[in-house]
């Protein structure tokens, strides 16, 4: 397993998933990591990748910025898989027109059936850059989000990861983490640092959704906490559908058959976000001319 060691002015925040399997241990398949590590240079010092031990990952959680989760698959001999989701502080924006970027990494001590990572870069509460990466049968995933030309404001990042491996109960899990904020002046005096976020945002889970191919769909997302006014974003929506960033209304006819893992994020202030995840199935109408 690899660890991203960011040479930034602040420590990367992290959440940790520890998955314990009881019974026959699932085979440890050798896999090839096909996703490239995030790149970027700050003060002439590039981001580097080094090996991390299970003890190092557990130490991240022990410092108070981690979260542990145990998954149980029966009785008997135990085997442990530990995953860590990290996000760097934003970096860049030191001169007019320069870019601002945030990097994130999801790393596990053993392979997963499927991994995905949704990375957002926010300026104040507005979404200014995002990316989604996914790999089957892998244990490492990297992603970055960037605004190519910086603007005056406070930048911060949000990362949400999805992990799935068969034989676990529940069979899948999510991790969600915010970065520390970075005031950026783009060559001029940056704004003052924001106050620490208070409270929490809870996004209401709408449950599993389904719709027919090319039929109009409408789903109003809701949240509580924070300021009560939210900026919305979503990843994994069925092809052809989108979310209104101001109202949280998901609309659009789905144009591709399939089952989708959707993650919706609500932002209510700098460093303050909440999310929920659910599935959305798109199928053919059984009798379109009835």
Automatic annotation (TrEMBL):
Keyword Signal on entry: yes
Keyword S-adenosyl-L-methionine appears in the UniProt entry: no
Assigned GO CC terms: membrane
Keyword entries, A-Z: Signal
GO molecular function: calcium ion binding
Example of a GO biological process term: carbohydrate metabolic process
Organism this protein belongs to: Allocatelliglobosispora scoriae
Name of the protein described by the UniProt record: Uncharacterized protein
Signal peptide: 1-30
